[in-house]
Design a protein that fits this description.
Order of helices and strands: EEEEEEEEE
């Protein structure tokens, strides 16, 4: 992530508003429906191109040339790393696959993959280019996935 602190919330920012109000109870007998949003988790694509879990949405703003942006605090990072992110770069948190679920992955799918290099380790979107299905054993999935990272077009073979 960027070390640029120019994205701090300006003092004239509007107060943070509740996106939705949660009811503590629901009267099922009246046919009232209750949607619990407290379990929703999000991730956002940072200026470094990697995806990070969002701890909290601090505020939002509208930029006439590009649309809505949200100020996010990433999980595990302090306020100095808060960042404005376009809403197109926010999505529901990716759910990790279990070894037994590898059959759900198909050629052409976009997946979130961990990329580790000597100077960094981050999660990036990648495309599944090919799959070599293998029999599973006691260690779990032995299938091999050829992926291409979207941020740098590098290709690697990975296991689940």
């Amino acid at each position: 992530m960027s070390n640029d602190t120019s994205h701090a919330v300006p003092t004239n920012s509007p107060p943070v508003q509740e996106a939705c109000v949660m009811k503590e109870t629901s009267d099922i007998s009246k046919g009232e429906k209750f949607i619990d949003l407290s379990k929703l988790e999000f991730e956002a694509k940072s200026s470094d191109g990697a995806w990070y879990d969002v701890e909290i949405f601090i505020t939002y703003r509208f930029i006439s040339s590009s649309g809505y942006e949200v100020l996010v605090r990433y999980d595990g990072f302090g306020p100095e790393e808060d960042e404005w992110v376009h809403v197109k770069n926010v999505r529901e948190r990716s759910v990790p696959l279990e070894h037994s679920e590898c059959d759900k992955i198909m050629v052409g799918d976009t997946v979130l993959c961990f990329q580790e290099k000597t100077d960094m380790a981050r999660h990036y979107d990648a495309q599944i280019l090919d799959i070599q299905r293998k029999l599973h054993d006691i260690r779990g999935c032995r299938c091999i996935f050829l992926i291409r990272y979207e941020h740098d077009n590098s290709e690697v073979c990975k296991r689940v």
